[in-house]
Amino acid sequence: MPEAYLIDAVRTPVGKRRGALASMHSADLAGHSLAALMRRTGVDPGAVDDVILGCCDTIGSQAGDVARTAWLVAGLPDHVPGVTIDRQCGSSQQAVHFAAQGVMSGTQDLVVAGGVQNMSAIPISAAMLVGQEYGFTTPFAESPGWTARYGDVEVSQFNSAEMIAEKWDISREDMESFALASHERARAATAEGRFAGEIEPVETADGLFEVDQCPRETSLEKMAGLDPLAPGGRITAGVASQICDGSAALLIASEQAVADHGLTPRARIHHLSVRGDDPVWMLTGPIPATKHALAQTGLSIDDIDLFECNEAFASVVLAWMKETGAPHARVNVNGGGIALGHPIGATGARLMTTMVNELERTGGRYALQTMCEGGGQANVTIIERL
């Protein structure tokens, strides 16, 4: 089967809620990463076969196929198409999968993948709620077919995070220690300049924005004082990912494109898959998805040098580590969504951008990325450094 190569990856710094990127139109936000990717690779943008961007809540500034719009506002060629996809939190990781699959099928040679989300402008789940203004009911959990299959049960990420904490016996203190480590790792990585090479600064009205805004100076004492999101619960805002804004983009190429354009690949897509789990539990998908990916490749946890498991909630990653045996020392080593934010449509691409840079920095061979997604789904991507 033909190979798919990761040529380069770039992202914006992540802006906190109502922060540096809040007023930026989503098309321009994504366009910034797309233009930067083309400059950095030196590839003729006219040779790109397709642009695939992940984005959720595609209303307002994110409506109308933002992948196509973003490419155009970046000043790139009219004849290159674009498509926007939604696999919830895994949207831009799935964009990378579709790009790689296009290359591996032999039908495409150069595909741009990435994602964008301005959560300050378009609140999370806005698309699910907007229909109420026109007399439509709320989405899937009120579908007669859904109710007939799963019953009248609460379906929410917050409820799932609580259920996971209870089932895997993860205490609030366990989660707060994990969250603190995320912030400490992210702040250390920022101070050491680990993100500098992957970030394309953004010019804003307040000046040049070039450093992630979300990492905090916090403490176990501060987190212990937060109220739980549900009465008597263990989940607080301190152990959840942050609402934020950002974009990222990657160039995926075939072996022929590598030769034709004189490119130097940074990594090879070694494996890609996606699995589903119980949609009521929702956030447990990374567990069976990771086990499936390792079984398919013949690799073990010990063969993987770095892991990125998205920190939607601390309980999700802690349960995943318990089930897979992935050691915290190799998981989210530069911090995760709790500290760096989770711009949902862009997170998958942001994680992969950070992952390939860290794999190069540390000299590892394999890195595995996974994340929980709405509907109880999870993507897994394994890349091999070249």
From TrEMBL:
Entry's InterPro entries? Thiolase (IPR002155), Thiolase-like (IPR016039), Thiolase_C (IPR020617), Thiolase_CS (IPR020613), Thiolase_N (IPR020616)
**EC numbers on record:** 2.3.1.9
Residues forming the Thiolase C-terminal domain are 264-385
Q: Which GO terms describe its molecular function?
A: acetyl-CoA C-acetyltransferase activity
Specify whether Acyltransferase is a keyword of the entry.
yes
Keyword field: Acyltransferase, Transferase
User: What are the catalytic residues?
Assistant: 89 (acyl-thioester intermediate), 342 (proton acceptor), 372 (proton acceptor)
Pfam families referenced in this protein's UniProt entry, alphabetically: Thiolase_C, Thiolase_N
Q: Which residues cross the membrane?
A: none
Domain Thiolase N-terminal stretches: 5-256
Task: Give the family from UniProt.
Answer: Belongs to the thiolase-like superfamily. Thiolase family.
Q: What's the protein name?
A: Acetyl-CoA C-acetyltransferase
